Amino acid sequence: MGHVIAISGKGGVGKTTLCGLLIQYLCESGKRPVLAVDADANANLNEVLGVEPETTLGELREEIERAGVDPRYQIPSGMTKQAYLEMRLSDAIAEEDDYDLMVMGRTQGQGCYCFVNGLVQTQVQKLQSHYPYIVVDNEAGMEHISRGILPMMEVAILVSDCSRRGVQAAGRIAKLMKELNFKPQKTGLIVNRVPDGKLDAGTLEEIRNQGLELLGVVPHDDQVYQYDCDGKPIIQLPKDSPVRSALGEIVKKLGWLNEKVTSTIHWHR
């Protein structure tokens, strides 16, 4: 079974940026193919990766919901909604050379995300045996954790900035996982956007107060901000980028690169 790595944290701490760079690092280290999952209704992992998905799970949900009502959405005659959905699910995965991207997306207008959340869960479970690594960018906050969208996660990476609020949010997510009896083999914190790569004593104190294991720090880099302003995919950062280097060192410490990846066949190729 593939390793499921879930990345969580409060909004605005840069977890999607780190998620994209982690996917890139795994691919460059020979751990491909990777399945990247954007499980945030406000999807933007594709922008970090520089990929444009054909459709999202949320858009597929709209097709099924409006079939027979809206002439733009028609299910072939004689086909059930479930059969049509199964046929279309492969279209919700953007295929790249080293990784594939599945995007949750959002429903239109009012409505619950339960159906789309369920699709994310079932698809990850279905595809887990076809990829050595599945990296999931969760939505900000605790929604996916409380709903049990990813109960099979093997590694839970919590991301915070240097603020106490960010570390406290990560601590609450870690506590919720314990309350729900999730048992990832590894749970730890990455502090992102650290000035000069050195944590303040107050931030370190809050990390200890929350009982979190610090996996490492990623320094602040103006180049990341500039790439975002220019609309450039973050994964195009130069290889000597301090952000890329720091994340690579963290991954090495976790020991993933010491594991042998067996031959894996994509389910839809």
UniProtKB/TrEMBL annotation:
GO biological process: negative regulation of cell division
Originating organism: Blautia obeum
Alphabetically ordered keywords of this record: ATP-binding, Nucleotide-binding
Lineage: Bacteria, Bacillati, Bacillota, Clostridia, Lachnospirales
Domain of life: Bacteria
Any GO molecular function: ATP hydrolysis activity
Segments passing through the bilayer: none
Name by which UniProt lists this protein: Septum site-determining protein MinD
InterPro entries reported in the protein's UniProt record: CobQ/CobB/MinD/ParA_Nub-bd_dom, CooC, P-loop_NTPase, ParA/MinD_ATPase
Keyword ATP-binding: yes
Gene name of the record: minD_1
Pfam families xref list: CbiA (PF01656)
One annotated Gene Ontology cellular component of this protein: cytosol
